[in-house]
TrEMBL record:
UniProt-listed PANTHER family: ALPHA-GLUCURONIDASE A
UniProt-recorded Gene Ontology molecular function terms: alpha-glucuronidase activity; xylan alpha-1,2-glucuronosidase activity
Domain Glycosyl hydrolase family 67 C-terminal: 469-692
Protein name as it appears in the record: Alpha-glucuronidase
Organism: Promicromonospora thailandica
GO cellular-component term (any): extracellular region
InterPro entries given in the database record: A-glucoronidase_C_sf, GH, Glyco_hydro_67_C, Glyco_hydro_67_cat, Hex-like_dom2
Coiled coil feature spans: none
Amino acid sequence: MTADAPGFVPTPHPAWLPDDAFAALGRRRVVVAGDGALAGTVAEEVAAATARFGGSFSRLEVGDGVADADLVLTLATDTDAGSASGTDPDAGEGFRLTREGGAVVVQADGDAGLLHGLFHVVRLGEAAFDGPDADETHAPATGLRMLDHWDNVDTHPVMGQVERGYSGGSLFYEDGVVRADLSRVERYARLLAAVGINRVAINNVNVHRREARLLTDDLGDVVRIAAVFRRWGIRVHLSVSFASPILLGGLSTSDPLDTDVAHWWVRAAARVWSAIPDFGGFVVKADSEGQPGPFAYGRTHADGANMLAAAVEPYDGLIHWRAFVYDHRQDWRDRSTDRARAAYDHFHPLDGAFADNVVVQVKYGPMDFQVREPVSPVLAAMPRTRIALELQVTQEYTGQQRHAVYLGPQWSQILGFSFWSADGGASPTVADLATGRAKAVEDPGTGAWHKPAGGFAAVSNAGDDEFWTGHPFAQANLYAYGRLCWDPTLDPADLLDEWAGLTFPGAPDAVRQALHTVLDGSWETYERYTSPLGVGFMVRPGHHYGPDVDGYEYTPWGTYHFADRDGIGVDRSVRTGTGYAGQYPSPWRETYESTRTCPDELLLFFHHVPYTHVLHSGSTVIQHIYDTHFAGVDAVERMIEAWSAVSPLVDPRLAERVAERFAEQLRSATEWRDQINTYFLRKSGIPDERGRTIY
């Protein structure tokens, strides 16, 4: 069948695992020593690579016949191979790499570590063998490195098959059932394993009636999916409805303190773990945006989570309880109500009340994955609770994978943010709080920290699109997320180099340079031509794509900018506003409280100010709006110019897709510029001091 024939489905793009990425390994003499399911996966990878590139491969018992090998991948006989993961729930993921005279040995104390060690060698390429003698230990920062898929078994009439998905249909479901052919899922699992992801939730957190049945009638199909991911060291989770005892069990209540409800969940957990012994646990969105929860029965979120936790505890299962809880039916006239406050108000009083196997999953900001918002104070407010930082790899509010926006720099800033020091200092970072590495750090608010380990979770951006992520460059976000979960201190620019080197092996250096030109500053570029100074949203309701300044302004959703003829922004100060700034510990409480000290990029999130207010940059608010929106479009034009110069050097299908996406990005950025600038010119009556065209 030709590429133009009806029904033709292109082979999925290899992303960061094309055959040539294995060339350095494949040309050498390689030994894999040790048993275990993942050791078998490693052996298959090595056998394929050496057959392709002319090397040799041997599968041996531990320690036998490895003297003449260039690379040995072996299970260790002691605990020196990277068990520094410590409190991680998934043991044996670390590894030790030694290099002497160009010969490399990777030792792991578990076969998961052997798999991660293999992909580390693949990332290094020739540098794995040509570097100086070395003895390195590698281990993940946390054992919980998860992707949440928002896939629906049945195509939703409004949200489609993948809610907030911009990469085609679901990898798992087709025509209302789990796919018969899971070969594409196998390729996806391999990609995830290569960047260190070790858990996936396979259905939408908004659990509809059809999807609820994955827990019961369709459990056999979940078993099939889990078997695919298991070969790559990845555990499967399900999103479940808190009302499952009603939807599936015929009970009249889902009250977490009702004995029959608790027993229903005990039986449900027993069925699941009997079928999938390494099942990970349940993800729950409750009392949020119409999803049922414990509030209906006068119970707390700790009551709800702990009831489920007791049901899964015999199997070392986890309950991921999302902290995205707020009133989505608020009165826009009431300025005392503040959606930003909601998660802290609901969850801070419950610190210490959650069971040990509950992980409270907290969005990185208090609103909803905006291009710029402050780091959520909930992350600092629950020292006795396991916290998972939740990010959004799918670009709901950052261009929906039609725009080239590399989010690695944003995530790196969030991970490195310190709540108790304006300049970092010795206080714990967000990454420390999520991984449990903030132990013994003094904090004026709570004394000595004894932070339990949590982890990382993010909404996936993958689908059945030829390029996995719609925009080929959005692959870099999935890659960077996995690598930052493994090590939150990695430099996002270095990760972009890694991704480019693997994805375009052998390409001229000009391709890598162009990718940096396009992507290094792309997050800030998107911010420039969309919502200014942290005010957020200003998007078209429903699909959230494209500008609509007042789209949510008079709605119940709590996403307001309060622009009038005199100024713009939301007063969240303690002295005159909603008090949200007071949810932060010092020094950020004081920093955000005052317009004199609030960072420019968050000014309108925390304060309502006149258009003539002078920023720290020296510009007025209104002139900043005009200047940045013109500059954002100019930056997109430069991105296109840089990529166009090298696009003939890459695969034509990829080049064609990128060109199509860039055309849309430029169109959309221009529309954002003209609508935002025109709106604020008409609202303020203050002209652009540079005399540029505003409509």
